[in-house]
Amino acid sequence: MAVTGxxxxxxxxxxxxxxxxxxLGREDxxxxxxxxxxxxxxxxxxxxxxxxxxAVLVVAVGLHMWSAVSLARRASKARPVKYAAKRKSxxxxxxxxxxxxxxxxxxxxxxxxxxxxxxxAVNPKGADATPYDKVVSDFDASRWYITLFYVVAVVMxxxxxxxxLWSAFQxxxxxxxxxxxxxxxxxxxxxxxxxxxxxxxxxxxxxxLVK
Length: 211
Known about the structure:
By secondary structure, the chain is mainly alpha-helical. Helix content is 72%, strand content 0%. It has helices at 2-19, 26-36, 48-78, 90-118, 131-138, 144-171, 180-206. Helix 1 (2-19) packs antiparallel against helix 6, helix 1 packs parallel to helix 7 and helix 6 (144-171) runs antiparallel to helix 7 (180-206). The radius of gyration is 20 Å and the shape is globular.
């Protein structure tokens, strides 16, 4: 789970950086989207690198979800009888709920995101529009509910990441009494950066900064 989570975090950082190119204008953003499909040419055929990246992400997401289910089942088998008195702290309970329900929301968001901005099936401009036009039409002020859904989903991603990164540090043996404050700060910083970076685009479109 820690390793696949790390792969997904690296992807999110790169994806966020690419999204922010929309602030450079229509031409730069569309050029970036087109460049993603030509990485490796002429050594690699058109779109092969992007297809391989997508395959890696699908495998990483699948293994991440399988790991979550496996760990939950293992924990349940290890303690078939519940404690007579609840020992779980409020913080632990909050983290568990965040990871569990946040994961479901994130999964639904990914499906919507692909149908919307990748395939254009539910985008107002359709599949043939340029990437820039898809984004601008999607987060138009009149479609505030889409922007709200996007923001809520991204915040859930941030909460999921914050707890997930901290857990990964512990799993990989990096955590210690002396390092804990710094590692918690790193986890919070990375999660916060991703939330701000991803939310900046729909909010900018909604308020008219990008149009």
